[in-house]
Amino acid sequence: MNLDPLPVDALAVGAHPDDIELVVGGTLLKLHSLGYKTAVLDMTCGEMGTRGSAEIRAQEALAAAKVLKLTARENLGLPDSKVWCDEGSRTKMVRALRRFRPKVVFTHYWDDPHPDHAHIAQIVREAAYLSGLAKYDVESGQARYRPSAIAHFMFPRTVIPTFVVDISEFVQDKMAAIHCYKSQLYDPNSQELETNISNSGFLGRVDARQRFYGGLISVENGEAFVVKEALNIADPIALLTRDMNMYS
Predict the structure, then answer these.
(1) What is 164-217 written as a DSSP string?
(2) Residue pLDDT, tens place only, 43-64
(3) Domain spans of the chain, in order of start
(4) DSSP for 14-67?
(5) CA angle at residue 75 from 74 to 78, to 5 degrees?
(6) What is the Cα–Cα distance from 86 to 104, expressed in whole angstroms?
(7) Is residue 94 within 8 Å of residue 130, measured between CB atoms?
(8) Range 10-228 has CATH code 3.40.50.10320
């Protein structure tokens, strides 16, 4: 899916179709409302998933992309559950970054228990550096490019977020995007094996998580991110001033 010409402002990179919707969907909707171009890069087709199939999830991802108002959504085609940070995967990621040319990349936390998630964080971080080297992968004919920042999601509850995005206005659309993945969610009539996502209480936990992060910044709903490097802030007053009544 590629609706408008690249480049984009923000690229969200997830291991499987539905990862991005669950933890970055509200942020992507908010960025779109602010006039930014957004895109999603799914690294695998989710073919090893317990429920559904790669073909079904591809259709669900396309439907979710429309709800999220994405400029583009692509799949890198790495093998699900067999993702490694090797030269092949790094080169594919470098070429994607040079095509999308995002200012900011959102991706998995580097210390995730899911091997695919952890390896993708490594792939993205290494590729983001390599894509800025003019002599790397000259065969592609692409110009060098390096994103300004990488923000990580899906980190443990013990990790303090670097920043939280207020997604309160966009929760309804975020949930609509999640509900596009009918093959993965709770279905009392399904004969397939149960997973964490298909559990009847899963969406309640999604709601609780975004309300928890929203509470950290005194709003109803939030999505949280960690940035590994120090941020170069031109205007700390603008960054740190919040529109809230601290004395109520």
Answers:
(1) EEE-GGGHHHHHHHHTT-TTTS--TT--SPP-TTTSTTHHHHHHHHHHHHHHHT
(2) 999 887 877 788 999 999 999 9
(3) 10-228
(4) ESSTTHHHHHHHHHHHHHHHTT--EEEEEEE--TT-SSS-HHHHHHHHHHHHHH
(5) 160
(6) 23
(7) yes
(8) yes
Q: Could you give the CA distance from residue 208 to residue 88 in angstroms, rounded to a whole number?
A: 39
CB 136 within 8 A of CB 186: no
Distance from C-alpha of 41 to C-alpha of 92, rounded to nearest angstrom? 11
Note the pTM of the prediction, 2 decimals: 0.92
The span from the CA of 176 to the CA of 21, in Å, is: 9
CA nearest neighbour of 16 among 44, 52, 40, 39 = 44
pLDDT in tens, 70-100: 999 999 999 999 999 999 999 999 999 999 9
Looking up tokens 């309300």, which residue turns up?
Answer: 211
